[in-house]
């Protein structure tokens, strides 16, 4: 936890340039609210300081790279394996805000990826790390596999000085090893080519030219973090709520593809995965199955869903079957 003031002029310019290039794709919410995202006192009038906090999320016994190499297994971004972090962290920040108010007065408001907030910029400015070439916040003692949350406060609290300057140096692993070449340049991510965007934020079809590159990643992507040398310093979570549910850290693609909509809703209750909806879930897994090793099980699983009442999903299933037709 660290405290910063609210001057984000340099980060505001970076955000405006990113939006001007259209790199936010269909995420229209990134362009709404004017400059409120980079000006905390416009979002919450009276704000003078921001308390920035981090919480690690990777369980020690969860595989990462090994799962990516098992092409018949679904890879789900490791932040999404357990309970939805929004409510858990916001509840704790709200409780902390009440304690601060009781001790020193003022007005406070907690955020966890729930409003137009430049959380990485604020965390960098507070000293929790630096924004790396992969646009993620990196901490020299904890890597980047952690959540961020903020408390906006009207109290003129003493600010912390950034303790960590950029330590990316000449390394370009995150840029070089992105499966879909989503980085225009260091610190510049074209979300329209990012697997996290394609499988989560994107509600339409996944571009055909990118499908084979997605591999078995069915919800998000961690590659640009996993290849980062600083990830070896990852601090493992002690939160049981972040441990995998439904064995999602090692579930087979065919198993997940067999879920009915009722099962999907039940199995993802309290999970961030539910937000994409059942049809996007099937779309993503169909692509994963198209990239999986050819087998009777995979082909039959795909064929069993051809009667799905959704044109987008059916088109992705047909694409997946075509990939196996070429291999057999």
UniProtKB/TrEMBL annotation:
Summary of subunit composition and partner proteins: Monomer.
Binding site for [4Fe-4S] cluster 1: 168, 171, 174, 228
Organism, as annotated: Sinobacterium norvegicum
Record note on cofactor: Binds 2 [4Fe-4S] clusters per monomer.
The encoding gene: queG
Catalytic activity entry: epoxyqueuosine(34) in tRNA + AH2 = queuosine(34) in tRNA + A + H2O
InterPro entries recorded: 4Fe4S_Fe-S-bd (IPR017896), QueG (IPR004453), QueG_DUF1730 (IPR013542)
Recorded GO MF terms: epoxyqueuosine reductase activity
Function: Catalyzes the conversion of epoxyqueuosine (oQ) to queuosine (Q), which is a hypermodified base found in the wobble positions of tRNA(Asp), tRNA(Asn), tRNA(His) and tRNA(Tyr).
Annotated PROSITE patterns: 4FE4S_FER_2
Enzyme's top EC category: oxidoreductase
Similarity comment text for this entry: Belongs to the QueG family.
Annotated signal peptide: none
Annotated catalytic residues: 113
Keyword Metal-binding: yes
Annotated HAMAP family: QueG (MF_00916)
Annotated positions binding [4Fe-4S] cluster 2: 178, 194, 221, 224
Binding site for cob(II)alamin: 37, 113, 134, 137, 148, 196, 221-222
Pathway: tRNA modification; tRNA-queuosine biosynthesis
Pfam family, one: QueG_DUF1730
Cofactor: [4Fe-4S] cluster; cob(II)alamin
Subcellular location: Cytoplasm
Name of protein: Epoxyqueuosine reductase
């Amino acid at each position: 936890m660290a405290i910063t003031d609210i001057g984000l002029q340099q980060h505001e310019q970076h955000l405006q340039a990113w939006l001007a290039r259209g790199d936010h794709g269909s995420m229209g919410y990134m362009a709404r609210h004017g400059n409120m995202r980079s000006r905390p006192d416009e979002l919450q009038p009276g704000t003078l300081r921001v308390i920035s906090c981090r919480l690690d999320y990777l369980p020690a016994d969860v595989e990462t790279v090994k799962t990516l190499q098992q092409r018949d297994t679904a890879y789900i971004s490791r932040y999404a394996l357990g309970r939805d972090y929004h409510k858990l962290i916001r509840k704790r920040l709200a409780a902390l805000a009440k304690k601060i108010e009781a001790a020193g007065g003022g007005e406070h408001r907690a955020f966890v990826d729930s409003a137009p907030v430049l959380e990485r910029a604020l965390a960098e400015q507070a000293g929790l790390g630096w924004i790396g070439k992969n646009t993620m916040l990196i901490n020299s003692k904890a890597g980047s596999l952690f959540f961020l949350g903020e408390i906006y406060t009207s109290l003129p609290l003493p600010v912390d000085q950034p303790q960590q300057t950029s330590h990316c140096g000449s390394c370009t692993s995150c840029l070089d090893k992105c499966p879909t070449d989503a980085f225009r340049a260091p610190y510049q991510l074209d979300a329209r080519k990012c697997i996290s965007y394609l499988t989560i934020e994107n509600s339409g079809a996944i571009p055909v030219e990118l499908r084979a590159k997605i591999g078995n990643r069915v919800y998000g992507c961690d590659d640009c973090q996993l290849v980062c040398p600083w990830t070896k310093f990852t601090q493992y979570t002690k939160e049981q709520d972040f441990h995998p549910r439904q064995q999602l850290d090692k579930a087979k693609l065919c198993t997940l593809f067999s879920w009915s909509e009722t099962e999907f809703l039940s199995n993802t209750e309290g999970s961030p995965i539910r937000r994409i909806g059942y049809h996007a879930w099937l779309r993503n897994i169909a692509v994963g199955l198209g990239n999986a090793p050819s087998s009777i099980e995979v082909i039959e699983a795909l064929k069993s869903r051809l009667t799905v009442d959704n044109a987008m999903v059916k088109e992705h299933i047909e694409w997946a079957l075509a990939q196996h037709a070429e291999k057999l």
